[in-house]
Each structure stands twice: as C-alpha cells, then as structure tokens.
Automatic annotation (TrEMBL):
This is Tetraspanin. Belongs to the tetraspanin (TM4SF) family. The chain crosses the membrane at residues 12-36, 56-77, 84-108, 217-243. SUPFAM superfamilies: Tetraspanin.
Length: 247
C-alpha cells in the first residue's frame, strides 16, 4: 500500500510540475510579448516604471518556473531527493516573491487609475516635443491606438502651446486622424484637425480604448497567476511528501 501511495504521489508530482512548466512557458511568452510588442503596449509599459519593472519580473518568473517545472518533473520521475529538495526551496522562494508582487500590485493599483494618468498628462505633456520621453511616448500611444488624451481632446485645454505653432488650438498633432495609424501615416486633414474641426480628430480617450483592448488579457493574466500560485502550492506539498517517502 505504501509503495502504491508513493507511486501515486510521484505521478501527481510529475503532473503538477508539468503544469508549472506550462505556466512558466505562458508567463515567459507573455513577458516577451509585452516587452517587444510592436502595437504600442510597449510604449505604455516604458512610460511607467512600475509596469516596466513588472514586465521584467514576469519575464524572470516565467523563465524560472519553466526551468523549475522541468527539474521537478525529472526529480519526481527519477525519485531524486536532492532535486526534490532543490525544487522545493526554489519554488517556495518564487511563491513568496509572486505573492509579494500581487500584494504590491494591489497596494499601488491607484497608480493605474484614469485620474492618475490625467494628472500626469496635464503636468508633463509637452505636445510635439519628441525630445521629451514622456511626450514622445504619449504621442506614440495616441497615434497607435487612434485616441486622444486620457479622456479626450479636452485634456489638452490647459496645456501650453508650442511657441512656433500658429495653427494648433488645443488638440495636439498626435490626435489628428491618419490614413494609417503610425507615425509614417499620412494625415487626412492636418490643418482642419489642428484648427478644431472634430471630424478630423480622434475624439475617444486613450484610457477607454486601451482598457477595452487589453481587458481580456488582464483577466487572463490574473486567472493565470492565481492558477500558477495554486499549482505551486500543491507541487510543494507533493514534493515534500515524496521527499519524505523516498528511502
């Protein structure tokens, strides 16, 4: 009976580690996508140090889970106590790090609100000044997502104009409609846009556009993170039971 129980534990351990392996691969792929994504999400991440750090933490965690899932599978199948102990200690460290990251994300969630981005935009945005990283990033985001400001063009009413701009009223150039949503895309009617004709402007705020674009991915990432934490917890339990059962 004890041998059957140990064999069952071994294969359960292998199964959970296989899921950790897959979870690590998913996190690794998601981290790489966030960092190299050409559609503009990278610009948002780069503009916020908290998101930038989080993307690289996710990348590192994915790589470590990928490796540890592989080691756990090997340790379970070969019944190697050294590998199992190594696996348990490192998966415990990763579990605690992920739990800490989740707590920090919850604590600093107010930094991702509409009000926070609106305040930062009005404080730091310098319109078409592409030498300023904040302004350049916002311009790239607005062009890529065909949106304007956080809530809409009204966000720019209190922002000073550039001295050499004779046409621009309140709407920056990045809010003007283009035939192709990229910096190389031709304006539909730049002069009309800058003089305030709404039908040549992107009127929707970027906060809503981006939230709608990535809402599915946010819930998917959250569900994946919860699933990975649960699998890690069970894997640690099985690893210790298998460690104690191996003679």
């Amino acid at each position: 009976m004890e041998g059957d129980c140990l064999s069952c534990m071994k294969y359960l351990m292998f199964l959970f580690n296989f899921f950790i392996f897959l979870g690590g691969a998913c996190l690794l792929g998601l981290g790489i996508w966030v960092i190299v994504d050409p559609t503009g999400f990278r610009e948002i991440v780069a503009a916020n140090p908290l998101l930038f750090t989080g993307a690289y933490i996710m990348l590192a965690m994915g790589a470590m889970l990928f490796l540890l899932g592989f080691l756990g599978c090997c340790g379970a199948i070969r019944e190697n106590k050294c590998l199992l102990l190594f696996f348990f200690m490192f998966i415990l460290l990763i579990f605690l790090a992920e739990l800490s990251a989740a707590i920090l994300a919850f604590i600093f969630r107010e930094n991702l609100t509409r009000e926070f981005f609106t305040k930062e935009l009005k404080k730091h945005y310098q319109r078409n000044n592409d030498t300023d990283i904040f302004s350049s990033t916002w311009n790239s985001v607005m062009i890529t997502f065909a949106c304007c400001g956080v809530n809409g063009p009204e966000d720019f009413e209190a922002i000073p104009h550039l001295p050499h701009s004779s046409l621009e009223k309140t709407t920056p150039e990045a809010c003007c409609q283009r035939e192709l949503q990229s910096r190389e895309g031709m304006f539909i009617n730049k002069e009309a846009c800058l003089t305030g004709i709404e039908r040549f402007q992107n009127r929707q705020g970027c906060y809503t556009v981006i939230l709608n674009s990535f809402e599915t991915y946010v819930y998917l990432a959250g569900a994946l993170a919860i699933g990975v934490l649960a699998i890690e917890l069970f894997a640690m339990i099985f690893a210790m039971c298998l460690f104690r059962g191996i003679q």
